[in-house]
Amino acid sequence: MNSLDLPKPPQETRVVVAMSGGVDSSVVAGLLKRQGYDVVGITLQLYDHGAATHRKGACCAGQDIHDARRVAERLGIPHYVLDYEDRFRDAVIDRFAESYLAGETPIPCVECNRSIKFRDLLATARDLDADALATGHYVASRPLAPGSSRRALYRALDPARDQSYFLYATTPEQLDFLRFPLGELPKDETRRLARELGLAVAEKPDSQDICFVPQGRYADVIARLRPDAAHPGEIVDTSGRVLGRHEGIIHYTVGQRRGLRLAVGEPLYVIRLEPETARVVVGPRAALATSRIRLDAVNWLGEGPLDGLPDHPVAVRVRSTREPRPATLHHDPVAGTTEVVLATPEDGVSPGQACAIYADDGPRARVLGGGTIRRVDALQAGAARAA
Q: Under a CB-based contact definition with an 8 Å cutoff, are residues 286 and 340 in contact?
């Protein structure tokens, strides 16, 4: 077996590297080339890169495509740019807008990995007779057993960089073809390697924003995509008492405190959004506490079928910035429902967010899958269930 757990010498192993133009994927390409693999770089043009050429913190656009091309030239590997704008708009941007208008808090990076990078790009890699598709994600994968072609997904070595939350939707078949060479490296080592390899992107800042949402201004993007979608409505408390008015629920997210412009003498938070009535429901922080979460579109990476799994102790992550917390997984095969019950309530859990499921809450825990949050049950009486 070579370093990618494939039964070929590196020079006979073709690896397609998804090159975003950043330091992480560039180092992956450089390391694999140095190890003797037959490396092919592919960069995806995902949206109108002309408008974002000079914007810092973007990915897969403008300057990033140029940077990826320069890295490929430095390494002496073939490099291709694929125009996936239409696919990205249909699969990611439009779904993001629809979810946001439904009062949800979508995670478009999960859908991009699921629908674009690990479906369409992976198919392209196979068309190129590649043996694997490698990315710069900070997540680890290892064979389920020595010599096995089936692989399991784990949190990265560097907990501050771990991206497993965004990759829970990777299917077992995709996982067998994917490789994540940075999963066992800390970020500072990645930058050191970039300098050692002589890559011009060694000091390039990491992307911070969702690529098509400049400076995190979600409402601006929704207003541009759906100009007639913002409807004014009422701001009410959990009992239905009107406290004020707003100019559209697209300006609010669950857990938000600032920008409510309410003079009621106590801190209030957005508890839920009701798109059918265009109402923003607010309440005290205690009303944000959630103990039971219903999941949809569940992807299961654990052993055996999910349908045969009894109530099972797991750990879950409801936001990328939070560590996994102990919970119990309950799947009802008759009703076709999957729920997690949190051992300790979480604040600010919103429909549309991702819930990643782990075997435990340890730093190198195995990823068992996850799903999209469809309903949350609040603890406080009077904090009504979100639809």
A: no
Q: Which is the CATH superfamily of the domain at 10-215?
A: HUPs (3.40.50.620)
* Distance set, CA 275 to CA 88, 287, 320, 366, 376 (Å): 25, 19, 25, 37, 16
Q: Cα–Cα distance between 304 and 296 in angstroms, integer?
A: 19
Longest dimension (CA), the chain: 70
* pLDDT, tens only, 74-106: 999 999 999 999 999 999 999 999 999 999 989
User: Please, which residues have CB within 8 angstroms of residue 68's CB and are 6 or more apart in sequence?
Assistant: 19, 20, 21, 25, 26, 41, 43, 79, 81
Rounded distance between C-alpha atoms, residue 166 and residue 355, angstroms: 9
Q: 118 vs 177, 179, 182, CA distance in Å? A: 10, 11, 17
Give me the sign of the Cα torsion angle 220, 226, 227, 230: negative
Domain covering 290-378 assigned CATH 2.40.30.10 in the classification: yes
pLDDT tens per residue across span 310-335: 899 999 999 998 999 999 999 999 99
CATH architecture of the domain 230-286 equals Roll (2.30)
Please indicate whether residue 211 is annotated as part of the active site.
Answer: yes
**Which of 60, 109, 112, 355 is an active site residue?**
112
Residue appearing with tokens 């990205």: 88
Annotated binding site: 18-25, 44, 136
59, 60, 211, 355: the active-site residue:
211
Residues paired with 141 in a beta bridge: 153
Domain parsing of the chain, residue ranges: 10-215, 230-286, 290-378
pTM for the whole thing?
Answer: 0.91
For the annotated binding site for ATP, the residues are 18-25, 44, 136
- 60 assigned to active site: no
